[in-house]
Amino acid sequence: MAAIVEGRASELVWLLEHPPLYTAGTSAKPDDLLSPYRFPVYSTGRGGQFTYHGPGQRVGYVMMDLRRRGNDVRRFVHDLEEWLIRTLARFNVRGARREGRVGIWVVRHGGREDKIAALGIRVRRGVSYHGVSFNVDPELEHFSGIVPCGIAEHGVTSLADLGLTATMADVDIALRMAFEEVFQAQAVDVG
């Protein structure tokens, strides 16, 4: 990150999978960690509350110089959401923002709304870090050890749960294409 701040390195997006774990953002409430001994729990400097990361979920760590992008954090968050929405559209899934609820949501049969993607960032010295998570085919039951993002009244879903058999490679291609559309790939290395 320091190299990006100093202009010695390009912006960067890392796409990866984690082993099963819970992370606590800066707004995490202890009561929202329902199973504290189930998986390792890591406190992070990102915004947000508790989330689960694990196999079958693509995590994108986004390190971008917001100083070159107007220093508008709200716009950056909007663009991250748009990135996820456009990625979902490539699988014919309609993702949407919801007022007062962080993340990207899909409407299920009967009108139920479930979260399919999350985001939590931090900005230091004008450079973002942390990022997004996108549920491809994680073990959804693992989310039951937390109140995901502090939202108990809605569920969590994935592409597989929606009946889609996308591979992680398929999702990576879709993420890359959507990223280029939203951010115009201005010297950002996505890999």
Helix and strand topology:
Blueprint: H1 2-5, E1 11-16, E2 21-24, E3 41-43, E4 50-53, E5 57-63, H2 73-89, E6 96-98, E7 101-107, E8 113-124, E9 127-135, E10 155-156, H3 168-183, E11 188-190
Parallel strand pairs: 1-11, 2-3, 8-10
Antiparallel strand pairs: 1-5, 2-4, 5-9, 6-7, 7-8, 8-9
- Main structural class: alpha/beta
Which radius of gyration do the C-alpha atoms yield? 16 Å
Q: Distance between termini?
A: 16 Å
**β-strand number:** 11
Helical percent range?
A: 10-25%
Describe the protein in words.
- The protein is an alpha/beta fold.
- It has 3 helices and 11 strands; from the N terminus they run H-E-E-E-E-E-H-E-E-E-E-E-H-E.
Keywords:
191 residues, alpha/beta, three-stranded mixed beta sheet, globular
Brief overview:
The protein has 191 residues and is an alpha/beta fold. The chain has helices spanning 2-5, 73-89, 168-183, and strands spanning 11-16, 21-24, 41-43, 50-53, 57-63, 96-98, 101-107, 113-124, 127-135, 155-156, 188-190. The longest helix has 17 residues, at 73-89.
